[in-house]
């Protein structure tokens, strides 16, 4: 089983994350930010990656450390669960429609962290979550997961739908990219021989 558990404790946050890349999309999420929990639940359910997250952060200050550090911990857990990445499909993309919104997410599990973000929000909060933290979560996840990630809202007007389509798009792309390719299950998907 491709699993990993990460414990991350700083003066700002205390985080425990467990992932199972070969799961069924089961999750237990608690970050103290309701909308953020909802997005991580979508990530788990639609990627079929089992995800357990318990974050206690300094929300009396703001949401920055909680969202950032949770992204870093989940990304690190995914990278660790992937191991040497032998046999994975590596590349994937997904179109994610949600009512009037359509998002496109493309991923390369490259070992080279990079985020291209072409998504904007027209309101400052979704529930109690600051919308500016959505991009920051994707950035943090890409950094420690070691993935190149492109996220673009092709069109949409409802801010909830825009955020959710991005998380669901990541989920669908991640699901494909981490799958073992039966045609090359014994090989690293790179001419370098390492990712």
Automatic annotation (TrEMBL):
Organism: Sphingomonas rustica
UniProt protein name: Imidazoleglycerol-phosphate dehydratase
Biological pathway: Amino-acid biosynthesis; L-histidine biosynthesis; L-histidine from 5-phospho-alpha-D-ribose 1-diphosphate: step 6/9
Keyword Lyase: yes
InterPro entries named in the record: IGPD_sf (IPR038494), ImidazoleglycerolP_deHydtase (IPR000807), ImidazoleglycerP_deHydtase_CS (IPR020565), Ribosomal_Su5_D2-typ_SF (IPR020568)
Keyword Lipid biosynthesis (UniProt): no
GO molecular function: imidazoleglycerol-phosphate dehydratase activity
Leading EC class: lyase
Known EC number: 4.2.1.19
Compartment(s): Cytoplasm
CDD domains referenced in this protein's UniProt entry, alphabetically: IGPD (cd07914)
Catalytic activity line of the entry: D-erythro-1-(imidazol-4-yl)glycerol 3-phosphate = 3-(imidazol-4-yl)-2-oxopropyl phosphate + H2O
UniProt KW keywords: Amino-acid biosynthesis, Cytoplasm, Histidine biosynthesis, Lyase
Similarity annotation: Belongs to the imidazoleglycerol-phosphate dehydratase family.
HAMAP family according to UniProt: HisB (MF_00076)
């Amino acid at each position: 089983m491709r699993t990993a558990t990460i414990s991350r404790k700083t003066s700002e946050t205390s985080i425990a994350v467990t992932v199972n890349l070969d799961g069924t999309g089961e999750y237990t999420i608690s970050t103290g930010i309701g909308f953020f929990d909802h997005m991580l639940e979508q990530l788990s359910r639609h990627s079929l990656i089992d995800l357990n997250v318990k974050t206690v952060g300094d929300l009396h200050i703001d949401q920055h450390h909680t969202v950032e550090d949770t992204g870093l911990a989940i990304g690190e857990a995914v990278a660790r669960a992937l191991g040497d990445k032998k046999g994975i499909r590596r590349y994937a993309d997904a179109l994610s429609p949600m009512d009037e919104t359509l998002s496109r997410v493309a991923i390369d599990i490259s070992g080279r962290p990079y985020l291209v973000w072409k998504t904007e929000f027209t309101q400052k909060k979704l529930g109690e979550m600051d919308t500016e933290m959505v991009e920051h979560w994707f950035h943090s996840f890409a950094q420690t997961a070691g993935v190149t990630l492109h996220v673009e809202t092709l069109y949409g007007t409802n801010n909830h739908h825009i955020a959710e389509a991005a998380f669901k798009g990541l989920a669908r792309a991640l699901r494909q990219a981490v799958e073992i390719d039966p045609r090359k299950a014994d090989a690293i998907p790179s001419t370098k021989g390492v990712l």
